[in-house]
Amino acid sequence: MTQKIPKLLVKRTSIHGQWSSRWAFILAATGSAVGLGNIWRFPYLTGENGGGAFVLIYLFFVLVVGLPIMMAEIMLGRRGRQSPINTMKTLAEEEGLSHYWQLLGWMGVAAGFIILSYYSVIAGWTLAYIFRTGLGMFVDADAELSTRLFSDLIADPEKLLAWHTTFMMMTILVVARGVKSGLEKAVKFLMPALFILLLVMVGYAMSTEKFMQGIEYLFVPDFDAIAEKNFFSDIMLPAMGQAFFSLSLGMGAIMIYGSYLAQRSSIPWTSVSIALADTSVALLAGVAIFPIVFTYGLEPAGGPGLIFVSLPIAFGQMPFGTFFGCLFFILLMFAGWTSAISLLEPAVTWLVENRSMKRIKATAIAGTIAWSLGLVTVLSFNKWAFSFSFAGQEKENGFFDIFDILTANIMLPLGGLLVAIFAAWLMSTRSTMEELGVGDTLIYRGWRFAVKYIAPVGVIIIFLNAIGIV
């Protein structure tokens, strides 16, 4: 069967609007990528998995897997100019492929929706901790008090529900205002503020006694620390999952943001800018956090509680700790907010396109459904909590851990794999060359090789190992 050769580039426009500039897109896409995954998830995964050795493997996945797939997602989004679901349906038809490829769009939107549901609950913790820190609750707190305060918070479903609801309302209000009036205005304020706050925290970390120990832990690989672990399932799978989670790949967010990108903007250049900014934030978060951890004798492998249990102890002991503690949790809230906006957007655009809804109504409906699913995560930390084992690690928070594993370790890499297959194996060379706009150059050939061979092979091998086949 011969492949249908599509017509020359179709000049589609998005009914939802367009970014006012390439810079606005970079800020928005970086805001989507930079989130709790960088500042909450990255440090504790680094601490659990050998410090610098994990960072090295994570950076490898960002470079050879994440960046090429990000370029592919932006390319598909801009060519389709619709929600991820309708984009994949349209592009499949254009290339003479099965309409079932729209299921890739459905999976991305579903993954983003599930992530948003529990993301909102965790981001709600940051709101609670802004006020807790500001009220001086952690001044001179020891490990017992900090642990108890955190345990009391997550054990109280009513408090979690209140903060979860507040954060979801913040997200809905921004998305309901549209691309330029909502998303773009929000990220133009939030992203510079986030970087400034992060640099202030790094500046404080530089003044601590154990600054160099924290730097060495983060950047000097200690392969002995991971010698007893299963290299594929315990190290490479979390590193790959973090690369996808951190870059917002496979969840529809980058694809929908790409649909608002002007045709004249360079996809390779903007993708590199986003990946660099996102990775810089993750590393700067480590630079800000680990010197404080070592200076105050805390445990770097503190798991998800590293941010909410260990660091408040340090803030309670350090000079001006209340001020810096508030800054840190405001930073964390901003990071979560910019990502949550991008996670809600794909579902909203589908409702607008397919159900002829006004954006405000579509946002209210999608946000309410995500909020309702978040109730499962709220109860996962208290009334519905149960333990299970995954990849040799004990998980204690039931459905929250299931959602996290399902999305970060399965749905996002699988979505990225299918994006790579569609873009490099099924779309015609002429289509991809036209959309990327770089011609038959070394950049194009390098991208095509990486997304056609390196990214899919890497994802498949690690998947097969994780399920015990290789």
Descriptive notes:
The chain has 18 helices and two strands. With 470 residues, it is mostly helical. It has one domain (22-466): Amino acid/polyamine transporter I. It has a two-stranded antiparallel sheet. Strand 1 and strand 2 (393-395) form a beta hairpin. Helix 2 (36-48) packs across helix 12 (267-295), helix 5 (102-134) packs antiparallel against helix 14 (321-355) and helix 10 crosses helix 18.
CATH superfamily annotation:
Amino acid/polyamine transporter I
Which descriptor suits the 3D outline? globular
Q: Which architecture name does CATH use? A: Up-down Bundle
Radius of gyration: 21 Å
Q: How many distinct helices? A: 18
- On the 0 to 100 scale, the average pLDDT is 89
CATH topology: Amino acid/polyamine transporter I
Give the strand tally.
2
**What is the chain-wise order of helices and strands?**
HHHHHHHHHHHHHHHEEHHH
Helix share bin: over 70%
At the first level of CATH, the class is Mainly Alpha
Largest sheet: 2 strands, antiparallel
Give the count of structural domains. 1
Class inferred from helices and paired strands: mainly alpha
Beta-strand residue percentage: under 5%
List low-pLDDT spans: 1-8
* Termini Cα gap: 34 Å
Q: Trace the largest sheet across and list its strands.
A: 1-2
SSE arrangement:
Elements: H1 22-33, H2 36-48, H3 52-80, H4 84-94, H5 102-134, H6 143-155, H7 157-175, H8 179-206, H9 211-219, H10 231-246, H11 253-258, H12 267-295, H13 305-317, H14 321-355, H15 359-380, E1 388-390, E2 393-395, H16 398-426, H17 429-436, H18 442-466
Antiparallel strand pairs: 1-2
Helix pairs in contact: 1-8, 1-12, 1-14, 2-10, 2-12, 2-14, 3-4, 3-9, 3-10, 3-12, 3-16, 3-18, 4-5, 5-7, 5-13, 5-14, 5-15, 5-16, 6-13, 7-14, 7-15, 8-12, 8-14, 9-12, 10-16, 10-18, 13-14, 14-15, 16-18
